[in-house]
Amino acid sequence: MNHKGIKAFPDRIGRLAEVAQDLTWSWCRTAREAFRRMDYPLWRDTSHNPFRMLSRIAEDRIEWAARDPGFLALYDRAVAAMDCLRASDGSWWAANYGDLKDFSVAYFSAEFGIHQSLPIYAGGLGVLAGDHAKAACDLGIPLIGVGFMYPMGYFHQKIDETGWQVEIYERLAVEDVAVERVMGSDGTPCQVQVPVGHGVVWVAVWRVRVGCVTLLLLDTDVPQNSPWDRELSSRLYVSEHEARLRQEIVLGVAGVRILRALGLNPVIWHLNEGHAALVIFERLREMAEQGESLVSALRKVRSTTVFTTHTPVSAGHDAFQFHLVDHLLSGYWETAGERRNTLLALASYGDGHSRMFNMTALALRGAEGVNAVSRQHRDVTQTMFGPIWSGAHDEVPVRAVTNGVHLETWLAAPLVELYDQYLGDGWQERQDEPALWDRIQSIPDEELWKVRLALKDNLLSFIRDRARQRWTSEKVNACQVVAAGTLLDLSAPLICFARRFTQYKRPWLIFHDPARLARLLNDPRHPAQIIFAGKAHPADEPGKHSLQDIYRRAMDVRYAGRIAFIDDYDLHVAHYLVQGADVWLNNPLKPLEACGTSGMKAAVNGVPHLSVADGWWPEAYSGRNGWLIDAGPGADDAADADALYGLLEREVIPAYYDRNEYGVPARWLAVVKESIRTIAPRFCARRMVKQYAQDFYVPMTRRLHADGVRGHEP
Questions:
Q1: Could you tell me how far CA 464 lies from the centroid of its own chain?
Q2: Beta bridge partners of 530
């Protein structure tokens, strides 16, 4: 294995670089504690990236580590945990489906959020894909993720003195990241060609190790390509239509070809959102060139394809003009046109002159297993794309597999210690069992409250440290320092709104009545506070103006420093927010939230949800585990805002300040415990990935074995 710039270590800790190159350390507590203990200041300075840390660590710390008994015990446990996750011996998959030999799932996603050191994610879709990969590793499911390398990643966000978002792109320092070039049998980088328009694009690949899961990241930045093609995979979600389609051709077509070049023939092909729909085209082309009829090929492709759709917003479904598709995919069909007409028809969707080549339509027609990401989203999807299927509405073949979050990644360490003590040994392997979480009631209120205050204090310290750093290095003005949250108070409840800034999520709703909000935040006896965080897409002008307006309010003296905006929202910032806030606010315009997972991450950390009935919340809300913003059918923004203010004034804030004789808010903690108890088992990624396996992967594979059709793959 290539450890690039990492120095050699003494034999006793000789596998340290190997641990750093396997991203299971991103959730393995013993591995993370080992790296922290080696050099905590360096661990912080490298943003919790052990691969970068080990290339910079001083010799004296290496010598100390090789002889310190405490560190060596941690090191041995970290190596053993990594080996266990790689081998998947004794895993859930091995115990239940060990008879399915040579099984693997190819999981295609335009982004993967595993850790902030590998910034190849933009938001919820990528973080969900990362949590899916991690849970698959925990369960021992052989999964191969296919995505993009994105050397420019997603942008870093800076907010200038006017409150305007500034996007900064930085080239990824590959030598500081746990990735490696995939080499061919001849010792040169593995590469494939993809016909695009009248030319070809060369695509290389990087490998990321995540226990028994492998991520293959496609990269067009190779010398054989023209300068513009080298930039194809440089950034996430380019706005220009032709460049976007070129990207999706690379993901779908080159992704399949890379797997073939590496001798990997997955049984199941799982497409995470429509960006990967051209996987279907490439697999059909393979079979047609081997002599299969298109009808037979489509039947076989459908029988092994799973498609997950994530958005109920029409603009979120990529669609392209047919003439553009015809030009860029001209190398995929013969002159006679039968293949061309059949394949274009698979993706055709719309009415009359508005018909376009729709990636979601292609995936829906090309997959036997189709799911939305919440029950409500299933209903919305069936309405949006109902014309694709024949038959009654209740026969539309869309299932609901509600998203989940990877608990081991998102739970705060002090809470994990509490759960270890009160849930019992091995609770992580049983985390999707609801009865297990009834034990949460046995945690004394005083202990839980102490942990919750400590996590909030960690968040406030993080905010102040960032503000201090900006003050000294970037020379921001005093108003910006206040807007960054330096005046936030440990004693007042902290409401958090952290998500992508776009109009349908209504980040501005709580400001509908500024005077009422000012009274609520500045109440002399029971004040409250709000934190905002999130990025607007660079092309989303309304989203950027909403962000600017909120940032300016954070500098407004009427709110007395009780509103803050935390910039450059990423996985690192998200950990502090979901663990340290007191309330998680969610108020999208219904029914435009497909699921949403940030509130799940907060809830399992004891941060109750305050939300409209959209996405996952209608499935989770019990009346005791958070709060429902309900202004009645057909409510407008004013009514929703009034309902939100009313909940804060009458229920949320009073419960937080209602203390017993020991200074503990027992009524508040009852909501906290109920939130953890009801949400952790039902909305964890372990449950989600098990459901994908049991509802899709296993039944589809068993049918293949029964039909004897496994051999159709090249």
A1: 27
A2: 495, 563
Other beta carbons within 10 Å of 96: 15
Q: Which two tokens stand for residue 524?
A: 């002399």
Q: Among the three residues 38, 53, 87, which one is the final residue of a domain in this structure?
A: 87
Q: What is the CATH number of the domain that holds 267?
A: 3.40.50.2000
Q: How far apart are CA 627 and CA 585, in angstroms?
A: 10
DSSP H or E stretch at residue 347: helix 338-347
Residues 132 and 176 in one domain: yes
Separation between Cα atoms, residue 644 and residue 652, nearest integer Å: 10
Residue 312, both tokens: 């109920």
**166 SS3 class:** strand
Say if residue 61 is in the same domain as residue 141.
no
- Shared-domain flag, residues 79 and 118: no
Say if residue 479 is in the same domain as residue 514. yes
**CA angle at 278 for the pair 274 and 282, rounded to the nearest 5°:** 155
Residue 550 sits in the same domain as residue 598: yes
Contact 563, 177 (CB under 8 A): no
Q: Which domain holds residue 560?
A: 454-682
User: Which residue from 35, 72, 50, 45 is spatially nearest to 3, judged by alpha carbons?
Assistant: 50
User: How far are the Cα atoms of 300, 418, 495, 570, 605 from residue 598, in angstroms, in the given order?
Assistant: 37, 22, 14, 12, 11
CA distance 353 to 66: 70
Do 25 and 111 sit in the same domain of this protein? Answer: no
**Block mean pLDDT (10 aa), the chain, length 714:** 68 96 96 96 93 94 96 97 91 94 95 94 93 98 96 91 94 91 89 93 97 97 93 86 94 97 96 96 92 92 97 87 92 70 89 87 96 96 86 68 98 97 95 97 98 98 94 89 95 97 95 97 97 94 96 93 96 96 97 95 98 97 97 93 98 97 97 98 98 98 80 48
Q: Which residues pair with 105 in a beta bridge?
A: 143, 268
Domain count, the chain: 3
Is there a domain that residue 94 lies in? no
pTM > 0.70: yes
38 touches 66 (CB < 8 A)? no
Q: How far apart are CA 37 and CA 483, in angstroms?
A: 34
Say if 441 falls within a structural domain: no
Examine the domain organization and report whether 262 and 354 are in the same domain: yes
Distance CA 209, CA 232 (A): 24
Q: Is 504 exposed, middle or buried (0-12, 13-18, 19+ CB in 10 A)?
A: middle
User: Which pair of tokens denotes residue 540?
Assistant: 């989303």
Q: Is residue 654 in some structural domain?
A: yes
- 133 and 79 housed in the same domain: no
In a domain, 237, yes or no: yes
